[in-house]
Design goal:
This protein has 141 residues and is an alpha+beta fold. It has helices at residues 40-62, 102-116, 118-123; strands at 3-9, 12-17, 22-25, 67-78, 86-97, 128-137. It starts with a strand and ends with a strand. The mean pLDDT is 96. Pfam families: OsmC.
Length: 141
């Protein structure tokens, strides 16, 4: 995997992936930025959330669960001192469907956390990561 980060001005950068996608990253005004994009640590947290969500949805679909939506709400604590690394990350999944099996949802979350999500498994080497979930039942139409 390759990526390219191009400095634009002050503390604003454009990140480009090898698949041809781009994202703007910037700092807060008190750090010399203009608040034009996400902070790098926000991007890291979102990347982990997307990685684990990808797994959960894929596992539930392969298990033929009637999933209609999946939202991962993330909360991260950071160290007070530099480097301000993540110290704790909690992922709360809100999985929606009609007749979802709670054991299958729990299994999908656990498999992602322990076996498939490279981002969260890598981060878990230095960060305490916890997960939970809730199921939102939709009515049959």
């Amino acid at each position: 995997m390759k990526a390219r980060i191009k400095w634009v001005e002050n503390v604003c950068f454009v990140g480009e992936s090898e698949t041809g996608h781009a994202v703007v990253l910037d700092g807060a005004p008190d750090s010399g930025g203009r608040n034009l994009g996400m902070r790098p640590m926000e991007m890291l947290l979102i990347g982990m959330g997307a990685c684990t969500s990808f797994d959960v949805v894929t596992i539930l679909k392969k298990s033929r669960q009637p999933i209609t939506d999946c939202v991962a709400e993330m909360h991260a604590d950071r160290a007070d001192e530099i480097p301000k690394v993540f110290t704790n990350i909690h992922v709360h999944f809100i999985v929606t469907g009609n007749g979802l099996n709670p054991m299958q949802v729990e299994r999908a979350v656990k498999l992602s956390a322990e076996k498939y999500c490279s981002a969260s498994i890598m981060l878990s080497k230095s960060v305490n990561i916890t997960h939970d979930f809730e199921i939102v039942e939709t009515s049959a139409t």
